[in-house]
Amino acid sequence: MMTDKSLADVIEGFGEDASPTLTVGEMLEAFESRAFGAMLLVFGLLNTLPLPPGSSTILSLPILFLAPQIAMGADTPWLPRGLVEKPLKRNDLRGLFKRLAPIVRSMELVTRPRLKALFSPLGERAIGVVCTLLALVLVLPIPLGNFAPGATVAVLALALLQRDGFLALLGYLMALGSGALLFVSAHVVVIAVRKLIGVFSGLM
Question: How far is the C-alpha of 98 from the C-alpha of 103, rounded, in Å?
Fold first, then answer.
């Protein structure tokens, strides 16, 4: 039987639970039939928060596994057993869940089913494809490179959950922006490296 709890309530519960650990499998079970979209939403939002270096690589793994399954039209999510059963220290996550819950609550209040034609089987797969590409960016250790793709995954995930076509269109625009930002960042890095090489060459 599906819970009547909102996504924000479920996320808030993760932080309030007294048990010392939380697994990805427990999160999947708590989200029930909403697991695909909810997991993408949570891990997308987690990637927008200021986290220690390398955290985005770990937190993007569920997205990298789940998004391709949406792209292939899977009905139920699958994750490797090692990832499902890996215990996470709840104390390390309580603050994050506390910050996420009001964000998700606000997002749920302003979204509703619109432009449902965008959520045909083909439309849902398109969201899966875009989120997969964004996850490939998230796993890369790019300094400050996790915010834009993480936020985009979260927006597309909520669009999928709420069947909000306007939100889906916004997500697609954000995906284009994330791609452009990544291209510009990579170009700047290349120019900087070339200048450094030129400086060092002049000193030799």
Answer: 9
Sign of the Cα pseudo-torsion (88, 90, 91, 96, in order) = positive
Rg (CA), the chain: 18
Return all residues near 28 (Cβ < 8 A) that are at least 6 apart: 35, 39, 77, 79, 84
Please choose, from the candidates 10, 37, 41, 29, the residue with its C-alpha nearest in 3D space to the C-alpha of residue 163: 37
- 114: three-class secondary structure by DSSP: strand
* Confidence class for position 2, pLDDT limits 50, 70, 90: very low
3-state class (DSSP) for residue 73: coil
Separation between Cα atoms, residue 57 and residue 72, nearest integer Å? 23
Beta strands per DSSP E along 46-204? 87-89
- Whether 129 and 179 have beta carbons less than 8 Å apart is answered as no
Contacts of 133 (CB under 8 A, 6+ apart): 175
Q: For CA atoms 79, 154, 57, 22, give the dihedral sign.
A: negative
Q: Which residues face 22 on adjacent strands?
A: 88
Q: What is the pTM of this model?
A: 0.77
- What is the average per-residue pLDDT within 148-166? 91
Helix (H) / strand (E) containing 62: helix 61-71
